[in-house]
């Protein structure tokens, strides 16, 4: 049945508008920190496999192709988990599925540390762990965009995404350089098990998304959260009636993604995300190994990996800041990917340490940093009732590209005898990503009523 629009009665309080017009306050910051904790171990666990290659290549008899498959194994599970997370989050709520992912990934990290003693078992456990991790990022991105005030949405979402996910991914190399020579590669996964402590904090303190609550007509819970997000409006909430802005449709969220209204942006998002993460994970997975082959020692090679991930914080925040002021994320993201392609070319040609440092830092800022703002663009491109599904499928299909990144990079290097052709493939992928982003039309605000009480 076709969707229809209903007008917003003037006497009712629009929950979407209340959230978007809020000033940043302490409760926003606390929620942002909780989301950061979720993303911290998500980033850490996804990147740490790159730092065990040095230790298991000999004992497990790994060729470059097998190394690529090992690095891609967790991403295969991540892709599957991401693809279903949004559907589950739109059906059961953001909070429940986030908790499932937190507890599941912590348990599986400990299982890898204790039981993985060969490639086949490592891959089996890593895929299972990836399923749990895949539940986290789409709904964390969805959640933080659903509470972000419009005037600072890009900086707010980029900051807490970076604080969590990028801090986790960049710390993996530093922790590996310190722990693995002393305690073995398994120590990386014992550290990952600490996420169970954070899972308990999430269980205790993270409320459900106010936009999801509004879409379900759970107005008492909405009112309670709005009291904390906008305490200056408490008197209005005491006497007002609430309504949720969005689109009324009897179609499933999955079906709506490919309707005429959303088809072009959905397909463009999927392709851009896959190519973006093909590039990011192809680089991050192989960077420490390439640096070792260029004559760097183990610690400095791991440090390059951390620099690559860590510079995404700067890239995401700079792009987010500019996007808030320009008002058009698409052009900012496209330019950032073009700069990322230039940095990959510089890395391919670098022969001295200074140039290599600049290239690695720039690639991290403009390849991974661009992805952070792209995530936010996707989250704002769909209305609440299909946002989780839209973001989840975007990240799930993007992770197909991520899965192929390290594997294809390994095959290309084994075929050509060096990393040069890998850098060419990644540069082409980034240029194509920038082009796809520019094909996406500007998002229209979703301003029609779905429910009122």
TrEMBL record:
Pfam families: MFS_1. Keywords: Membrane, Transmembrane, Transmembrane helix. The chain crosses the membrane at residues 27-47, 67-88, 97-116, 122-144, 156-181, 187-206, 267-287, 302-323, 332-351, 357-379, 391-415, 421-440. GO terms for molecular function: carboxylic acid transmembrane transporter activity. Residues 31-445 form the Major facilitator superfamily (MFS) profile domain. Its main location: membrane. It is a multi-pass membrane protein. It is found in: Membrane. InterPro entries: MFS, MFS_dom, MFS_trans_sf. GO terms for cellular component: plasma membrane. This is MFS transporter, AAHS family, 4-hydroxybenzoate transporter. It comes from Paraburkholderia megapolitana. The lineage of its organism: Bacteria, Pseudomonadati, Pseudomonadota, Betaproteobacteria, Burkholderiales.
């Amino acid at each position: 049945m076709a969707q229809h629009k209903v007008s917003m009665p003037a006497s009712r309080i629009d929950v979407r508008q209340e959230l978007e017009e809020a000033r940043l306050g302490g409760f926003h910051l606390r929620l942002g920190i909780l989301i950061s904790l979720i993303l911290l171990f998500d980033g850490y666990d996804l990147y740490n496999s790159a730092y065990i290659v040095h230790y298991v290549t000999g004992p497990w008899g790994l060729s470059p192709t097998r190394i690529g498959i090992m690095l891609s194994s967790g991403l295969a599970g991540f892709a599957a988990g991401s693809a279903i997370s949004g559907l589950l989050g739109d059906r059961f709520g953001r909070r429940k599925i986030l908790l499932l992912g937190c507890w599941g990934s912590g348990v599986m990290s400990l299982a890898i540390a204790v039981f993985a003693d060969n490639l086949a078992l490592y891959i089996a456990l890593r895929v299972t762990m990836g399923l749990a991790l895949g539940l986290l990022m789409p709904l964390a991105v969805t959640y933080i965009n659903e509470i972000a005030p419009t005037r600072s949405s890009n900086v707010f979402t980029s900051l807490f995404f970076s604080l969590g996910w990028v801090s986790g991914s960049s710390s993996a190399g530093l922790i590996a350089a310190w722990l693995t020579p002393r305690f073995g590669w398994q120590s990386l996964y014992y550290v990952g098990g600490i996420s169970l402590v954070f899972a308990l904090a999430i269980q205790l303190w993270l409320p459900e998304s106010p936009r999801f609550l509004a879409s379900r007509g759970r107005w008492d819970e909405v009112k309670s959260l709005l009291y904390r997000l906008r305490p200056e409006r408490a008197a209005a909430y005491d006497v007002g009636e609430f309504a949720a802005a969005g689109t009324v449709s009897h179609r499933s969220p999955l079906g709506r993604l490919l309707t005429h209204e959303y088809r072009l942006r959905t397909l463009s998002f999927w392709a851009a995300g896959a190519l973006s993460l093909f590039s990011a994970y192809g680089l991050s997975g192989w960077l420490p190994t390439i640096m070792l082959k260029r004559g760097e020692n183990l610690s400095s090679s791991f440090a390059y990996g951390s620099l690559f991930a860590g510079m995404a914080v700067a890239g995401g925040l700079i792009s987010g800041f500019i996007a808030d002021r320009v008002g058009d994320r698409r052009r900012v993201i496209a330019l950032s990917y073009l700069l990322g392609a230039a940095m990959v070319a510089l890395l391919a040609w670098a022969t001295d340490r200074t140039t290599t440092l600049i290239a690695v830092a720039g690639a991290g800022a403009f390849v991974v940093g661009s992805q952070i703002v792209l995530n936010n663009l996707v989250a704002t491109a769909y209305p609440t009732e299909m946002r989780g599904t839209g973001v989840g499928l975007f990240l799930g299909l993007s992770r197909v590209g991520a899965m192929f990144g390290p594997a294809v990079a390994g095959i290309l290097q084994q075929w050509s005898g060096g990393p040069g052709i890998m850098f060419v493939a990644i540069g082409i992928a980034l240029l194509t990503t920038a082009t796809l982003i520019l094909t996406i039309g500007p998002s229209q605000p979703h301003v029609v009523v779905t429910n009122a009480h």
